[in-house]
Structure formats: structure tokens, C-alpha cells
Amino acid sequence: MKKQSNLSRLLGYAGRHRYLTRASWVLSAVSALIALVPYWYIWLIMREVLETAPDFGRAKHLVHNGWMAVLFAVIAVLVYIAGLMCSHLGAFRIATNLRIKTMEHIVELPLGFTESFGSGKLRKIVNESSAATETYLAHQLPDRAGAIATPCGLLVLLFVFDWRLGILSLLPVLLGFLIMMRMTGAKMQQKMKEYQDALDDMSNEAVEYVRGIPVVKTFGQTIFSFKKFKSSIERYQKWVIAYTKQLRAPMMFYTAAINGVFVFLIAGALILTRDSVTPEFLLNLIFYIIITPIISVTLTRIMFQSENAMIVDDALHRIDSVLDLSPLKEAAVPASPRDGSVTLQHVCFSYDGKKDVLKDISLSIPSGQTVAFVGPSGGGKTTLAGLISRFFDPRKGSIRIGGVDVRDIAKEELMNTVSFVFQNSRLMKASILENVRMGRPGASREEVLEALQNAQCGDILEKLPEGADTVIGTKGVYLSGGEQQRIAIARVMLKNSPILILDEATAFADPDNEARVQEAFSRLSRGRTVIMIAHRLSTVADVDQIHVIRDGSIEESGTFRELLEKQGLFSRMWKDYQTSVQWKVSGGGITT
């Protein structure tokens, strides 16, 4: 099947506005042709001046021809503006629809997609790639129509007056076009991709660096502590400098060629007028010197249009990299879980399809129990919790909630069944009331306020000027990490899901906030199945079951006391943890 062109694809997003886009091309071409008419009147003015010199009083049509030149110049500008208005309306509609479709597709993708893809890279694709299509459609395509119409009109003008001078004018055009083709060929397409890759990489690392600024400031480090960010900047710098040097020579020759038309005209005129100079030839030579700068402007437009076409092609490829990702399959006949139990059978998972980060995990969590996943960092605890929430699907094995495979549960019901509290919960720029109501959009104000009280948020509401109606992030209203966590817990309480996953949820809380958060968790956990991911081992002492995960496998399982008696990995972790919490800072330094 024939591949659809980029332009056809973009017009497919225009809807009824596609006719405005096409109209803009026609108007731009008409404007370009009308813009050549003033040169005809300039030629008439120059001819009359030469014919009546030195008795300029005999020149009767100078004023008329001058005003006609002005009139057609104004008409050309007005027609071009009308074309731009049409192109912008179509371009804005296309860019908007492209963003909407991309975001609607992202919403359908598994929740783990954003983390693996990179939020900085994803933001750049959604915003900047669609913006690239807007520039192309609003400006470049109308200009291309004008750039095609202008040479056609110029060819007529160049050969009407003196075909010899016309040929001389086209020689630098041919030379410049050959150089331009060398700069904008297949190699340029690859270079454009490398350029966008370098920008994506730097954007992604910049987002990660900004997120890590609290850590950098806490430990007094500099930007150089983020080697990946620094390396991405250096790679971009090296690429840009090397590419600039590579294009330096051809760009210099191209500029010289398209601006050297006067050299060809003057040299040709000297050869053609060795015997004598006629007034008619002088008139034509002056006219050609005036009109030929349009050639260099037209060629430069064509060159930048070729570059922007490559940018759009790359932008669409990047958007396709998101659109080509398949959402998780939905069951034809969804089933509902009977309770809050969780069962994993021989689960294996890999991010890249090669190396498994989870290896043959099997465990069972009865409904209403509280279990904990502990173990060294990078062992797979968060990944395992993400699979239960169906952020991803396992490569092998099955995950069941309430006796039903998570792949057979409707997406909306699964999201209502499992709630997730992250270690760094995000709040929207909205009122506290609306932030909490996101857990259950149909909840009443009284239900939201009750959830806030149960989440130990009373002190937060008391200190804010408008209580629960205070908008976070505006007018200097900001909350600490622990306070944000309590607001997030209120949201989960309002949602009232039977299964709760806590991913290191007290990691960034100060002692006072941690006590309140733990009290909120205590209320939230009643009657629910709770899965805790914890590094602070003191928080898992009272859970029903602990699973110690290392290198993608469950190394040992049992209650807190049973694991201590085994003298295995958990026992060693507990001893290390006790040693670390006994340290304290005194005036003389760190002591135990």
C-alpha cells in the first residue's frame, strides 16, 4: 500500500479547515505574481525617463505609473495577509487536533509508559513536534506556493525584455540550486534527526536534573554531580559545532552564488556592449539589476522550506513513536474481582524484552492483609507493585485480583480497585478541594472535607487563608512534602479502593508530618488489602507478611519475627538499619 505523504496526513487532522489551508496556497501564489507587477511599472518609469531626458517635462505618465506600482504592491500585501489568515486558522486547527489525538492515545497507554519513555522527551514530542507542524503549515507551505509562482513570473519577465540578460541572470540561480541540493539532501535528513535526538536527550535530562535539585542542594553539589545532564549538553555542543563547520563552506559558496548575479550581469553587459551601448540595452540592464535580488530571496525561501519539511518529517516520526505504541488489551467480556486478594503466579517481566527484572515471582496476599516489599534498591519492588496496578503486563505468568486476571478487569474498574500513594505525590494547580475530589469526581463537599479530616489535614486547612478552597501554587501558597502527602492520602481515602499500594510514602516527610501521615495510613488501611514498599524497616514491624526482594526474585518471606530468626538477608538489613538510625549529629560531629 502506498505510504501517505506527510501533507496528506496533516490535512487529515484539519477537518473542514483543510479548504482554508488550500486557499492559502492559492492566495500566496496570486500575491507573488501580483508583487511582480510593480516592477513592470518601474520599467515603464525608467523607459520614460530615458526617453525624455534631459527634458523631463515631457514625461506625462510618471505619476500614474508610480501610483500604479504602489497600488499593486499594496494589493499583493493584502492578498498575502489574507492567505496567512487562512493558513494560520488551518494550522492551529491541525496542531490542536494532533495534540488532542496524541494525548488521547497517551491516556490509553499503560501508566508505566511515561516513566520508561521519559517525561521530558514526551513533553517535547507533544508540544514542540506539533508546534513544528504549525510553523510549516502556517508559513512554509504558503511561502512555497509563492516561491513556485515567483520564478514562473520571473521567467516571463527575464526573457521578455532581453533573453541574453535573462540567461545570465539564471546562471547563478542554477549554481546556487546545485549547492542547495547538496546541503538539503538525504544527509541533511539524517543530520536533522540527529539534531532532534540531541535536543530530546538534553530536554529529558534537564527535567530529571530539575527534579533532583532538592538532593543537589541538600548535599551541596553542583550541576557536575549530574553527569548525564552535563554529558547531554556536551554532546549537543559538539554536534552543533561540527555540523556548523561542515556547512560553513557550502553555505559560503551558496550565499556568494545567489548574491553574485550582478557580477554575471555586469560582465555579460561588458561583453555584449563592446561596440556600443543603446538606451534600450541600458534600460534593460538597469531593470535586471533591480529585479534579480528577488531570485536570491526566492532561493533562500526554498532552502528553508526544504529544511522545515525535514523538521516536520522528523516531528511526525516522533509523534508516530508514541502513536505506534499499543495500549494494553482489554477483555471482550470484562469480569469483576470478588474481593481484595492479590495472587501472582510465576510472573516474569522485562523492560527491554531481553533481561528480566522480575524472575518467576509467585506470592499470595489474602484480602484485608497488610504485606510489605523490602530489599536492596533496584531489586524490583516498585516494578512488582506497578504490575499489580497494571502499569505494565508481565512477560510471563499471571496476576489476579479477587480471583480475576487483571487483564480481564475493565480499566476503569481496575483503577477504582487499586489506589497508589507514591513517595513524591503530585498535586494539581487547583484548590485543595478539587485536588482531593479527583479521587471521586462525584463526591460532595462534605465527603471531601471528611476525607481531609481523616487524613489528618485539619492543621493544613486552618493555616490557609481560604481553607479547602485555597488554590495551591498561587499567591505564595505552597505545601511541604509531608503536607502534600497527606492531601494525596485524603484523595485516596475519598476514592475508597479495596487495595492500597504505598510506595515509600513517608520518604520525604519530616518527623511531625511522618507521625500524622502514619496516623492517616492507619485509618486508610482499615479493612483494606495494603501493599507497602519500604526502606524504613521500622514501618513494617507490624505487617502480616514481609517479602524480601533482591535481584528480581523473592529471597525470603515471613513475619517480622520469623525473618529475624532466619538470620538471612532481612536480619542483616535490620541490623544495618538499626545502626544507621542510632547515629545523631552533635556539636562535635557525628557520634553513635
From TrEMBL:
Chief location category: membrane
Entry's localization field: Cell membrane
Record-annotated ABC transporter domain positions: 342-576
GO molecular function term, any single one: ATP binding
Residues passing through the membrane, by range: 25-46, 66-91, 167-185, 251-273, 285-304
Lyase is among the record's keywords: no
UniProt keyword annotations, A-Z: ATP-binding, Cell membrane, Membrane, Nucleotide-binding, Transmembrane, Transmembrane helix, Transport
PROSITE patterns tied to this protein: ABC_TM1F (PS50929), ABC_TRANSPORTER_1 (PS00211), ABC_TRANSPORTER_2 (PS50893)
CC annotations in GO: plasma membrane
Domain ABC transmembrane type-1: residue ranges: 26-291
Membrane topology designation: Multi-pass membrane protein
Any Pfam family matching the protein: ABC_tran
Stored InterPro entries: AAA+_ATPase, ABC1_TM_dom, ABC1_TM_sf, ABC_transporter-like_ATP-bd, ABC_transporter-like_CS, P-loop_NTPase, Type_1_exporter
Protein's name in the database: ABC transporter ATP-binding protein
Species: Candidatus Scatomonas pullistercoris
Lineage: Bacteria, Bacillati, Bacillota, Clostridia, Lachnospirales
